[in-house]
Amino acid sequence: MVEFRGFGILTCCLAAQLSAALWATPSGVQITEDPKGARVGRHEGRAFALAYEADMERFAREDAADRRTGGVVFTGSSSIVGWKTLLRDMAPLPVVNRGFGGATSPQLWWYADRAVLTRKPRVVVVYVGDNDLCQASVTVGNYMKYIRLFRDCVWQADARTRLVFLSNKPSPSRWEWWPKYQEANRRLERMCSRDPRLSFVDLSATLLDASGQPRPELFLEDMLHLRPETYARWVKVVRPVVERAWREALAAE
Question: Which structural domain, as residue segments, surrounds residue 163?
Fold first, then answer.
């Protein structure tokens, strides 16, 4: 299957397997296969693996089993996937978890139609960047480019949709990158301050001690992912913002 993303949101399915030849999409994304046969997208110099077909197929099955739309979609990387109590934590808001672990900002943009927009959400909550910003080759500017592309993709589908961006988290395993994460968070917050449809949630205080260092006891053994009980800290700062965005989205209809 080959996906072609145009000016709007368009997916074309071809029965033939993607060959090693180069395929250019109207959006400027080129798709190739690496030496092992895995699909790779390339856009304006940024390469990203198209490795989430199994997740997209699972999302499609979930959509077929539950056709309700118009709720709140949480999406992004493993910090969303690992939020196992999310639906209970946000109840009675109609929440769907559409995280796919390891996702980067260009992958979130590329898969937006299948991971997020099929649900026609009123509110989208995003955690992505943890896997971008720890790469020396990825600048904060490049990360923000794909954040904006994702935002615009959502608004092409429905300009009334509210988006809530969660800050990139501090963690012991990626502490060397924390200054870069902080710059990205400042850029995220600045973007959100310019449009009432956007909100920003700073998660830093939920994971840092009084001296500004990450608290290891809040993380799993890999010192990257969160312990299940740590999400209770996130609920306290995330839920009020999501509830406000939900009220605003309903009022905008």
Answer: 69-251
